[in-house]
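Task: complex structure prediction.
Instruction: return structure tokens for all chains below.
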Amino acid sequence: MNIESMLANKIQKVDKLLKNYLTPNSEYEEKIYEAMKYSIFAGGKRIRPILMIEAYNVLNNYEKAVEPFAVAIEMIHTYSLIHDDLPAMDDDDYRRGKLTNHKVYGDGIAILAGDALLNLAFEIMIEGSLQNDMKLGLQAMKILGERSGVHGMIGGQVIDLLSENREISIETVTYIHEHKTAALIHAAVEVGVLLAGGTKEQLEKMKKFGYYLGMAFQIQDDILDKIGKQEILGKSIDSDEKNKKATYVSFYGLEKSKEQVILLSKKAFECLNYFGESADFLKQLTKYLMDRNY
Amino acid sequence: MNIESMLANKIQKVDKLLKNYLTPNSEYEEKIYEAMKYSIFAGGKRIRPILMIEAYNVLNNYEKAVEPFAVAIEMIHTYSLIHDDLPAMDDDDYRRGKLTNHKVYGDGIAILAGDALLNLAFEIMIEGSLQNDMKLGLQAMKILGERSGVHGMIGGQVIDLLSENREISIETVTYIHEHKTAALIHAAVEVGVLLAGGTKEQLEKMKKFGYYLGMAFQIQDDILDKIGKQEILGKSIDSDEKNKKATYVSFYGLEKSKEQVILLSKKAFECLNYFGESADFLKQLTKYLMDRNY
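Output:
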């Protein structure tokens, strides 16, 4: 089976998990669940939950204990997209070729759907921790909480927002990439290894892998934003330029940015070598993500 | 010491706790922490953390284990106010006589400050749970998570938003009150009793107390919104009427609403009788909250 078929299978499994956690309790909850599901099922590639589950699989056979956390990280990622797309932030009408949440449900419901997904992510992790190893669960939640909050993803988004239409340094661009994108990606693999009972050294190796992968992923995004076609990317081309955002590409140009993606991917691969053959799928996935044109 | 001085003391203690948890890690985090602190220290009465700590004190001597949860509930309450005040929601320029968060920092930062406070609330509870009894911590987080999420506060806010400019039933008004306001208030006292090692029966009694208090509190709010003066309430008078919101008062009129507040307070008192003298402060607080004119 090639990587694309394998991924399609894994995406389907994650979608099924997500569906289990998104059922309204009463008529009053129907509209907000509709809005939450609209963005959850808007064609996400499920990179973070798949990374988490596959990092788990590197050390251990699949167990249900990882599922609540895989669901939670995708909910956190999705809420951040809903809020990012709002007129008060990036003001995007389309994402992955579909209308953004607020274009369909209005800004108020979009804000609340985002809030609800973030809150629900923690509810699901709490329940998962109560059902399984409480200490591991809490430690996993701690990682995800830190990486998604003001010291992680939200912190990156704040600086991204404050940097619009301003001259910023390459250090600031790096801060944004590290926090807005890489933080949640290395959280994914860290949590996978942690829940699988990984050692401190394994955790450290996997965290580094996630960091390099996350940075490469974001620079690749900047490159695609510059050269990508709207029908492929599903969002307005060059939306970074529209919002006058400094990116890695605007600092270093396309060629040097592509070199950087290759360099970071190589470092990511080196981290995976530590795990031997059991990391083969993660290697294929890394290659696939770096070669993507969408 | 009268109730007002006692409360002033307790508010000061909660403020000090909150301050400990609101220090930026780097220059990049300064702006978002400024926005978070602006709303956290905008004159909140700290009712929820005080209720939690006092419910704890009914059963047990004060211990630090309750502090992270008291801080977290105030952060959750504050984030909900920041998001509620946004133009996409209630569109309020003032709260407690001060400009609302988005009027000072802009809508984008206000959304992120809210997100950051919700996320931080969970981070703090996770750390608190790791440091103390993990099972009790997770159970407390479960209560708070449920009451603040789509089955609680957010769910209430959704129906509140969807009901603007529409005819709604008294059942729907009750749903909004129960979820938007009462849910977090009974969560406060439940968590207090839970962390103090309370029995199932004690938990049930305290939850009922919180429910009656929360409902009385919200109807009192509706009454004050109708008759209150802007300089006392610190928000535009009759903002419910501005947004064409159905309230308890618009259904039953002022007199019947006042009777209902008295009835609910009486029920709240009856629940507290179960705890004997150790609940004296909660009784005084209940009386004080029901007599308030702000």
